[in-house]
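It is time I had a proper look at our fold encoding. Can you supply me with one protein entry, sequence and fold together? It will help me judge whether the discrete encoding reads sensibly. Leave the record below and I will have a look:
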Amino acid sequence: MILGNKTLDSQISASTLSEAQGTKHSIIIEKTFQNNTNSDYTEKLRDLGNEFNYASNSNYYWSPPELSLLYGTPLYDAISPSQKLALNHLYWVGNYNHTAVSEATTSIYNMVTSGVFRAFGGYETLCNELDFETDQESYHIRTFQKIGYKTKMAIVGKTILGNSLYGKSDKESNSWLRPLIPHPVREFFTSSGHGDSTFSEYRDNALNAIAKTMLSDKKQYYSKYLQELEQRGEPIPAPADGLGGRIAPRHWLRFFTVHWGMSPFMACQYYSLRYTANAILKNQEYPYVRYFRELEQKGEYIPTPTAVSYYHLLDEAFHTTISQTIAKDMYKDFPKPTAYEKFVSGLAIYMAQRNLLSGLSGVLPGRCVYDDPMLMVFYYKLLKSPLFGMETKEALDWMEKCFCQEHEGYHVGLKYHQSLLELMQRLFSRLDYQWKINREMGIMAAGGSISKALQKNTKTFKEFSQSVIEQES
């Protein structure tokens, strides 16, 4: 084990270690590690991904119909049975593409935080579990990608594989204000196209310095993973996509990462965020598990993606247990958080609520955020793809009905929102160091409103449709 360099730090670590051994949470971690390493779900997932053939699975629902793109919308009621099947399959693809990106992020943060726990000492079983989880995630990701790619190619080809609808907008370049800004000032704030702007580099360096200064008494625990990145001249990791990419802007994520990779308490606090990802996945994945069991009980054919969802949840159950245990109990092993650590941990969860959990979707069940322009781009491409073959006006007319009018899809979305809210409140209500609005999940709770979603989506769609018409006129 690696302990702190200072005598006082060594004494604190040794004292904490003796208190941590034999605790309820240390026993849970030990048992979870044993059960996880003894299971064979990861191997099943690998084999299912390698053997997947879309034609053999194309005539079956992969989940209950409500887990389909556009479910409950006026368009869904008007389309053919084969198109409904395709939307059911594409929902699975989109959900697990998002999950794959999020699990790649999880792998990075497993390494960031395990570096802190190893430096503190006494948590080798936990670190071994995190290392094992990272290996599992690599198999999960490859399976999701294989099934997703084959399915997208079979249904829509390459039509909607990209995210952008158009090239970079020239709106900014035509701004009346631009000529009034001195060229050196514009250069300072604008990226050259080969990397970050001078301003963003200064900002990131300043935030990094603040974090390290405020946590200077914990520098002996600085994650080896982050140290090695710095030695190679590589930036602090900050995801741009997946759930991690939605939590906060990348400069804030780098700022939080330094804290999660230096302070033992903050490393534990990260797992409350990881639990958020676990809970979102469980909320959307458990219906697949119920569907798997229903098909199995009836002796009916089980589509490969349904089986993947089933075995993935079994694997992820171990990961969820670890997230809960660290976030809810293990943080108490360490000295109480400072006022500064409480502030940063509160800010991270507040941003996650605001950016990831603050709304409701009527076209993507389980999405607890308002429908943004990027999602509208996706649906616009989908409606113009070979699956629907719509012209621009027809596509926009249908999108307006789906995004801006109340329908069953919003009520299905609200059901998943309430289920996730309960999971979140169950954990965060126990975190005594968190802000009241975070313990109660106040922002998320306020976002569970169909009327608010319609109001927000109507405004967003109006701007989106206008941009489409301008670009295509």
In short: Residues 1-19, 161-177 have pLDDT under 50 and may be disordered.
